[in-house]
Design brief:
Blueprint (H helix, E strand, L loop, with lengths): L2 H10 L2 H12 L2 H17 L10 H22 L7 H8 L7 H6 L5 H8 L3 H12 L4 H8 L3 H22 L23
Helix pairs in contact: 2-3, 2-4, 3-4, 4-9, 7-10, 8-10, 9-10
């Protein structure tokens, strides 16, 4: 198989994962499809820049995140007139649509976990999702979201802690057991033998 065809075939194996990530970012199926399409167009256009033998999945996710970030930046520059059709359309939208995580994980996660995950701030939810669900390394995530690796590690740790706290608050089943044992001396009172 020629190199271009091999690249295309391997790139298409990540389509579902890229769509799930795009849906999580955009929170709109049509926008997610457009984002994935733009990602593949850019990936195919710049396929010669990809180094065979490196992580194609991380390369595609980086393109997806950069494309999304650029689209958000560009759309923020577009003014919305108060009497425009966009304002009328926004008024007709439901108050709160399902989040992408709820759509994707509805059958696999219990309601408490879904609610706790959905309530995380975006930066923490993104970092935890990429690490724990998509299984990217810290370095790959740092490249994708264009922040230092230490920031990624902090976001993941804080996101996991917030998730734990929210689950603990909503249910006793995740809280740590604290048992008081009789006849056990505190660590500072233990004698060296």
């Amino acid at each position: 198989m020629e190199p271009q065809r091999a690249f295309e075939a391997e790139a298409l194996t990540y389509l579902d994962g890229l769509y799930a990530n795009a849906l999580r970012l955009t929170r709109n199926p049509d926008d997610a499809e457009d984002l994935v399409q733009d990602t593949y167009v850019k990936a195919l256009r710049f396929a010669q820049r990809y180094e065979p033998g490196t992580n194609l999945k991380a390369w595609l996710y980086t393109i997806l995140h950069n494309t999304y970030r650029n689209q958000r930046r560009d759309s923020a520059r577009d003014p919305v007139a108060p009497d425009s059709e966009l304002v009328d359309q926004a008024a007709d939208l439901p108050a709160r649509a399902d989040t992408p995580e709820q759509i994707l994980l509805r059958g696999t996660l219990d309601a408490e976990l879904q609610a706790a995950f959905d309530s995380l701030p975006d930066v923490y939810r993104e970092a935890v999702w990429l690490r724990d669900v998509e299984e990217f390394s810290y370095g790959e995530i740092a490249q994708m979201v264009q922040v230092p690796m230490g920031t990624v590690m902090s976001r993941i740790a804080r996101g996991r802690r917030l998730l734990y706290e929210r689950l603990s608050a909503s249910s006793g089943r995740f809280s740590r057991r604290t048992e008081v044992r009789e006849n056990v001396e505190p660590p500072d009172k233990v004698r060296a033998s």
